[in-house]
Amino acid sequence: MLMRRPLMVRDVSLPQHERTAVDALTLLTLQRLCMELFWWLLTIVLFAIGLIGTVVPVLPGTVIILAAAIIHRIMLGPDKSIGWYTIIVLVLLTLVTYGLDVLAGYFGAKWFGATKLGTFGAILGALVGLFFGLIGLFVGPVIGAIIGEVIAGKRMIDAGRAGWGSLLGNIGAMLAKLIIALAMIIIFLVAAPSPF
User: Fold this and answer.
1) What does the H/E/C string look like for the chain?
2) Entry pTM
3) Residue 21 — very low, low, confident or very high, per pLDDT cuts 50/70/90?
4) C-alpha dihedral over 131, 47, 182, 186, to 10 degrees?
5) CA–CA separation, 120 vs 126, rounded Å?
């Protein structure tokens, strides 16, 4: 019986010194990819915390989203992250949300017929309420509007109506901040190049 010899394949691998250089380059590329994915993961986690912060005013939601975008830019560089134009847009949107926090009580109280003192009280209550977290953000403008209306000589029912308007204005501002926060995240994701 005729036996066939197995086909021998010549070893055509790279010489040892070239193989070491290729291994080092592969390891360096893998490390860079892992770090890039880490910064993307951190950015997404901060985005989620920022979204929670827009609904729960204990956390500064849009500031956290802005910080995540800036950290991403600093750590990955301009070629793998967003540009300065996008950062400027995100800063402006963050400032808009703070304007909403302050002015929402004013417009809500004004819509429900508050006097100038009532609307001024709502603004002042919102500014003071910022220092007291969640409760202060909702209760501050209401108390400010009611006190302003009482000082203006309105009946307690009219003062309560102005306070109610201030509360509804703050709830509307919270929804608007949530929409702006989602828009900030979408702007970031559209502007940043994909890591894959």
Assistant:
1) CCCCCCCCCCCCCCCHHHHHHHHHHHHHHHHHHHHHHHHHHHHHHHHHHHHHHHHCCCCCHHHHHHHHHHHHHHHHCCCCCCCHHHHHHHHHHHHHHHHHHHHHHHHHHHHCCCCHHHHHHHHHHHHHHHHHHHHHHHHHHHHHHHHHHHHCCCCHHHHHHHHHHHHHHHHHHHHHHHHHHHHHHHHHHHHCCCCC
2) 0.72
3) low
4) 140
5) 10
Query: What tokens were used for 117?
Result: 């003192």
What is the distance between the alpha carbons of residues 103 and 187, in angstroms, rounded to a whole number? 25
pLDDT band for 5, please (50, 70, 90 cuts): low
Q: Is the pLDDT of residue 180 over 90?
A: yes
